[in-house]
Design a protein that fits this description.
alpha/beta; two-stranded antiparallel sheet; globular
């Protein structure tokens, strides 16, 4: 079966892993349109005027330093393949990769993202850690969406992408990117992955699923980086609190309010807005 056929097979189970936040957002086939904003990241086409406006507004919020960083340069060069400019979602990922480089000194050979979108995280891994294996756990709709972007811009060949359905799929040596529907996330237990990342995604999950992911992370004796709203109420009334995640006995390298997710911008007056609630982030070692 093709990659799309395999991912489509898991669509029938996707609702089992959706909180009330996603039930209404991913209940149709809009996820097949890579141009649409669907709540799991954004993709901004590059043109001179848009690039100029984004840069002006970004510098008002972030200053100049981040634009001189090696991580920014690598993202920008990688995005040229996609005719894509760096928007506020991407800036936040650039800050993340810089923070990781400052705090994890040894080589990262493998990383697993729980809840990517618009290949925002994958773009950073492919450009900043080009030799690392990448594992992406997500709802089938989002995995399909990300796969369509990868194919549209010829970023990875099918022979270097695998849908994980059984343990043997993880042992394929030629694979760069492993796509993992939530049904099969348990296959990553005790798999020695260096780093797990969750960016604004735990805050939109069922707590039972968050707990399962923490069990997987701890079994890998891995680093975990996560950045999420400190307090969020979902449409059906579920309350998710950053402090209540099942942290366990990991060693906290930092655990603090996220300094780069405080404001966002829009092209509409008054242009700058506060996020709805504080975002916290942390890096924890379960080694």
């Amino acid at each position: 079966m093709s990659i799309l056929q395999k991912l489509n097979y898991y669509l029938k189970k996707s609702n089992e892993y959706k909180s009330s936040f996603w039930i209404d957002r991913l209940d149709n086939e809009r996820y097949l349109d890579t141009k649409k904003f669907l709540g799991f990241g954004s993709f901004t086409k590059n043109n001179f005027i848009s690039n100029f406006l984004h840069k002006i507004l970004q510098k008002k919020i972030y200053g100049n330093e981040i634009f001189k960083s090696e991580e920014y340069r690598k993202y920008k060069n990688f995005f040229k393949k996609q005719n894509r400019l760096i928007n506020i979602d991407n800036i936040q990922h650039i800050y993340f990769f810089r923070k990781i480089n400052e705090n994890i000194k040894h080589k990262i050979n493998s990383a697993c993202v729980i809840g990517d979108g618009k290949i925002n995280f994958l773009s950073g891994m492919l450009s900043i850690y080009p030799e690392a294996k990448i594992y992406s756990i997500n709802l089938s709709e989002v995995l399909i969406h990300d796969y369509l972007i990868l194919k549209k811009y010829n970023i990875l060949k099918d022979e270097n992408i695998s849908v994980v359905e059984k343990v043997e799929d993880l042992k394929k040596t030629n694979i760069k990117l492993f796509l993992i529907p939530p049904d099969n996330a348990h296959l990553l237990k005790d798999y020695n992955i260096d780093l797990f990342v969750n960016f604004s995604s735990f805050q939109e999950m069922k707590f039972s699923d968050i707990k399962n992911y923490f069990d997987i992370i701890k079994s890998n004796k891995s680093y975990l980086y996560t950045c999420n709203r400190y307090h969020k109420i979902l449409p059906a009334g579920e309350i998710l609190k950053f402090a209540d995640y099942p942290w366990g006995n990991g060693s906290k390298i930092f655990f603090e309010k996220c300094e780069w997710i405080t404001k966002y911008y829009s092209f509409k007056y008054p242009f700058f807005y506060d996020y709805d609630g504080d975002h916290w982030h942390c890096l924890i070692s379960y080694k």
